[in-house]
Write a structure and sequence with these properties.
heterodimer, A: about 190 residues, mainly beta, twelve-stranded mixed β-sheet, about 50% strand, B: about 180 residues, Jelly Rolls, eight-stranded antiparallel β-sheet, four-stranded antiparallel β-sheet
């Protein structure tokens, strides 16, 4: 059995130009950890990038927990000012990364490598780590380039069986975006 | 094509001071190591750190590290330390952190069996449900073990006089190929 197995890839071509979110449901609880690799662009009409958000759900949700049951921490630089921190608690829109918006160059995509740690352990809240960022030709324009290390905690202790990725300011993903969900075995 | 192998999994059923993996192959079975940790200490702290040591080398001055972190949701801080007896990773949640919160970390150790000094890189986060500064943390660390020996033993212990609580988990993976 392979240690890393691709569970599912979502390509935006399959949904047209602007699918509003990516979602995986009925994720089996048989892996130790999950990993998601994202290459994405959102349809935000201003600035050069957009925040990437994550929500999770369990068997009791349908399928996601959309309440204020998340916290997040961001360690980030925009390439110009000093690196900074950001975050929030008791929120329903926890930030897990940054992607490119389509205002700068249609060929530019942001990326994130997201690890959902020990996601099936019902004795702990689920913590998610992510490294990534984006580049655009807007360069030093505020909110246009980024390098980020993010974390999110979902307060629920249930096993995660659904995950959604969506953007904060745009209303959808642009064509060419894709995301793959992997399971990491023991 | 790179192939991952799951070398070991430790899921604590009872509190324990440390987790040690010994006899890690250094004969080319793997090229690189990655560790996934999900940990919480029983110490009365909001956040803290563990100790990472290789080859039972604690007590020397071979560890150094450079870091970037945020602990207040506003400012990022850089830091460095050298001539340490161990590395101050992974970060950990403590008994004062909200219930059920466990710190998460990934530790990358490339070319762990080479004859050069050993660099490593760490992503580590202590989550919480409050905005009060210094009760949570995100940190990235570039570390160096200034020793040319191949790494055949890794120890991850609580950074104080406490234990890792039950349900803390530790996974060691080997990667072969490029």
């Amino acid at each position: 059995m392979a240690v890393i197995e691709a569970i599912s890839t979502v390509y935006m071509e399959a949904f047209g130009a602007e699918a509003s979110y990516i979602i995986w449901d009925d994720i089996p609880d048989t892996y130790k950890h999950l990993e998601i690799r994202v290459s994405g662009q959102t349809n935000r009409a201003t600035y050069g990038n957009d925040a990437l958000e994550i929500r999770m759900g369990d068997d009791a949700d349908s399928p996601l927990d959309v309440g204020g049951n998340y916290s997040y921490i961001t360690l980030e630089t925009d390439g110009t000012t000093s690196a900074f921190g950001h975050g929030g608690v008791n929120t329903s829109i926890p930030r897990i990364g940054r992607l490119t918006s389509n205002t700068a160059n249609a060929a530019n995509f942001g990326m994130a490598v997201i690890t959902v740690m020990d996601y099936a352990n019902t004795n702990k809240s689920t913590t998610v780590l992510s490294m990534g960022g984006n580049w655009t030709a807007l360069g030093t324009t505020a909110n246009s380039v980024s390098a980020t290390f993010n974390s999110v905690m979902w307060y629920d202790t249930a096993a995660v069986n659904a995950i959604s990725l969506f953007c904060e300011d745009g209303t959808g993903w642009m064509r060419g975006s894709c995301a793959t969900l992997y399971g990491i075995n023991d | 094509m790179a192939v991952w192998t799951h070398i070991a999994h430790e899921s604590l059923s009872l509190p324990a001071t440390s987790v040690t993996w010994s006899s890690i192959p250094t004969d080319g079975t793997y090229d690189h190591l990655i560790i996934f940790c999900s940990v919480r200490s029983d110490r009365s702290i909001y956040k803290g750190h563990g100790y990472l040591t290789f080859n039972d080398s604690s007590g020397g001055t071979d560890y150094s590290e450079t870091s970037l972190k945020t602990t207040d949701l506003t400012v990022a801080e850089s830091g460095r330390s050298s001539a340490r007896a161990n590395s101050l990773v992974p970060l950990t949640s403590g008994a004062d952190t909200v219930a059920n919160a466990f710190a998460a970390s990934k530790i990358y150790i490339p070319h762990y069996a080479s004859s050069a000094f050993k660099p490593f890189f760490v992503e580590s986060s202590v989550p919480n449900n409050v905005t009060t500064a210094n009760r949570y943390e995100n940190k990235v660390i570039a570390g160096l073990w200034s020793n040319p020996a191949a790494i055949d033993e890794i120890k991850i212990e609580d950074g104080g006089s406490g234990d890792w609580v039950a349900h803390s988990t530790f996974d060691l993976y080997g990667i072969l190929g490029v």
